[in-house]
Predict the 3D structure of the following.
Amino acid sequence: MSEMRLIVVGAAGRMGQALVRAVAAAEGVTLSGAVERAGSPHLGRDAGAVAGLEPLGVPISDDPLPLFAAADGVLDFTSPAATVQFAELAAQARIVHVVGTTGCSADDEAKIHAAARHAVVVKSGNMSLGVNLLAQLVRQAARALDAEFDIEVVEMHHRMKVDAPSGTALLLGEAAAAGRGVDLGAHSARGRDGHTGARRTGDIGFASLRGGTVVGDHTVVFAGPGERIELSHRAEDRSLFARGALRAALWGRGRKPGLYTMADVLGFSD
């Protein structure tokens, strides 16, 4: 099979640069396009050079349409509004859309889900193998431990992160809720402040820390009578997310349209 032609959107950002480097280093894929927002100072520059590599012969453009028409897939860690637009383009072009964007609203999710009727969409709050394995462990632990064990999700990211809780924290919270057989929206506690009263039994709590250059730390705490279990993952380099995104893109090539997750890509099942 020929090399998979991939586009990186948000190519000049920190994650976009990591994706460009990952594509350049991997076998079976090639960088066929790079996209940035209109007005970006990086427009016209070589995507490889922006990512700290030798030039790759791929200029950064603000016109995604012709790039999508000539590609097999797109790697997208941008913003919710941009991701919705890229989802529509990917659906029109019938290409694989790997979405690592977090902070999407219910309306955004509905639009992405609609696009998945025509394209393979792999969407996850975190693309790493370790985090998705952690989610499976959290689900199993939540199923095994009864409501005497309170569940808290604690996450820390760099000071520039704009959404909280993080997409990964929500992924882990959903895993815990699935293990307990409850709806996360009806059983979550966020942003405690002031006189909150006693903790409600069955809630899944979230705490978000921000500071420095932390790539991503996540811990799920199961606190029971006289004992505590902590399951943790610490990301040390964004390249691990990029590698996961590449794996998702290659997995999605040739599959039927639909909305998939990294659990599908990695073959995890209950």
